[in-house]
């Protein structure tokens, strides 16, 4: 009843402590850490075209890095669905400004996963045509032979492409090239970049210089003063409200994870392993 009425909250401890010289700062999560590293490294990096002219004004580079961060996050989400980012964006339909909405798998008779077909479809109609074509070659397909994942990230990614284009960078700059496409300078040293995303990694690398980063694996790694300052002090703490949207499903999951049966727990872990962002063992 306490949860159902919204009375239960969990204090959120930081994931990292960073230190440079005598200054310390607590960081909530990986995305927060990325933003801080960009903030620290941004001033020391300049982006140039191959002919040495500025590719973007320094005061506008923060916007580009923010977009690249969002694209990096989407890349991770797509990878969980076994979608290669380069292959995916090569299917970008510039005329209609869209990306495929579905990843479709066609599995041959007998469950031959190694020889399954992978398709990217823009619409339900295109999925239907893919199925019809497969059934003409393989015969009728049962549900276990025709599977798809919806790629919810497509509209947001298209928006990010549009934002990059407005800043002078086409979608092709996101694809890794054998030859450098841009240069960056750090402390007067020129560094070739083979994709625009390399800029993001470089700025974060520069931001790490002289920085000590401690990752907390548990509250036991904090002393009482740190725990109070970061997690418990009322004016600073961050609280997450515990919500129970599906009590039956929550009870099922609790029973699986905390029960005596090993096989259901193993199956749950295997099915959800790719959804884990951080795992400390």
> What's the CATH C level of the domain at 10-78 and 178-239?
Alpha Beta
CATH architecture of the domain at 10-78 and 178-239: 2-Layer Sandwich
Q: What proportion of the residues form beta strands (DSSP E)?
A: 15-25%
Envelope shape: flat
Terminal residue distance: 33 Å
Rounded to the nearest angstrom, the radius of gyration is: 24 Å
Q: Report the structural category.
A: alpha+beta
Descriptors:
281 residues, alpha+beta, GMP Synthetase, Chain A, domain 3, 9 helices
Descriptive report:
With 281 residues, this protein is of the alpha+beta class. It has helices at 30-41, 61-80, 85-89, 124-138, 154-166, 197-207, 224-232, 247-258, 262-272; strands at residues 9-11, 16-20, 23-27, 45-48, 102-106, 117-121, 146-150, 182-186, 189-193, 212-215, 239-241. The strands form four sheets. It has a three-stranded antiparallel sheet. α1 packs antiparallel against α2 (61-80). Among the domains are: 10-78 and 178-239, GMP Synthetase, Chain A, domain 3 (2-Layer Sandwich); 245-275, no CATH class. The chain contains nine helices and eleven strands.
